Amino acid sequence: MKAVPPGSSVLRSPLQFRKRPQKIVYEEDSLRRRFYRDHPYELLRPQSLIEKEIPVREDWSTLLGAERVAEEQALAFGAKRPLSQTERVLILEQENIKKCPPKVTV
């Protein structure tokens, strides 16, 4: 406070802010830019900061049930998934709305 006492105004002068802060540049930044320029699809892969600590899973059977895998394969080969109860009700509702449009009275 003794070296730089506050001014008479609480607001600072705009002249104090003319200098822009220096850019912080790390050596890794240029390496990272080059890597993603050479391998652009790596940007699509989700990144984790603790990636090295996650164990590599080798047995996926506990995560994906056989039924789910079978359903995905069937859909990939053109099978049609049956409609859920909610989807059936929505279709019936849309059909009834088309039959009887709402009457608006003024």
UniProtKB/TrEMBL annotation:
Identification of the protein by name: Small ribosomal subunit protein mS23
MF GO annotations: structural constituent of ribosome
Principal cellular location given in the protein's record: mitochondrion
Keywords: Mitochondrion, Ribonucleoprotein, Ribosomal protein
Cellular compartments annotated: Mitochondrion
InterPro entries (UniProt xref): Ribosomal_mS23_fun
Protein family according to the UniProt entry: Belongs to the mitochondrion-specific ribosomal protein mS23 family.
Pfam family, one: MRP-S25
Record has Ribosomal protein as a keyword: yes
Gene Ontology cellular component terms for the protein in this record: mitochondrial small ribosomal subunit
Domain of life of the native organism: Eukaryota
